[in-house]
Write a structure and sequence with these properties.
54% of the residues lie in helices and 0% in strands. By secondary structure, the chain is mainly α. InterPro entries: ANKS1/Caskin, Ankyrin_rpt, Ankyrin_rpt-contain_sf.
Length: 106
C-alpha cells in the first residue's frame, strides 16, 4: 500500500484498498510510517483523496512512527488544512462513542 500511496505503482488506490486487509492498511515501513502517514504528508489534492480512502478502509490515526509522530503531525508539517480537519474528525469519532469511521462533508 505504501508504494500505491507514493505513486510508485500504477494501481488505482480504490481498487487496491478494496482487496487490502486491515493489516495492509496499517502496515509500517522501515521508518514506522503507515500509508496514512505518507498520504497525509502529501501536498497535493491527492492527499485528501488518499487520506479519505484510507480512513474509509479503517486506517489507524494513532499509530506512531519511529520519531513518535502520528499522521496528523506529518499533515501539520505540510500545512494541508483539509486533511488536518479530516484526521481530527476521524480521530474524534474513533475515540468517542464509536470506533467506526463515518465520512462527513467538511
Amino acid at each position: 500500500m505504501h508504494l500505491v500511496v507514493l505513486g510508485l505503482v500504477s494501481v488505482d488506490p480504490e481498487q487496491h484498498l478494496a482487496i487490502s486487509s486491515d493489516k495492509d492498511i496499517n502496515a509500517q515501513d522501515s521508518l514506522g510510517r503507515t500509508p496514512l502517514h505518507w498520504a497525509s504528508a502529501l501536498r497535493e489534492e491527492m492527499s485528501l483523496l488518499l487520506s479519505r480512502s484510507l480512513l474509509d478502509a479503517n486506517a489507524s490515526t494513532t499509530i506512531r512512527d519511529s520519531r513518535n509522530q502520528m499522521p496528523i503531525h506529518h499533515c501539520a508539517m505540510t500545512g494541508n488544512a483539509e486533511v488536518m480537519k479530516l484526521l481530527i474528525v476521524a480521530a474524534a469519532l474513533r475515540t468517542g462513542t464509536t470506533k467506526t469511521w463515518r465520512p462527513r462533508v467538511l
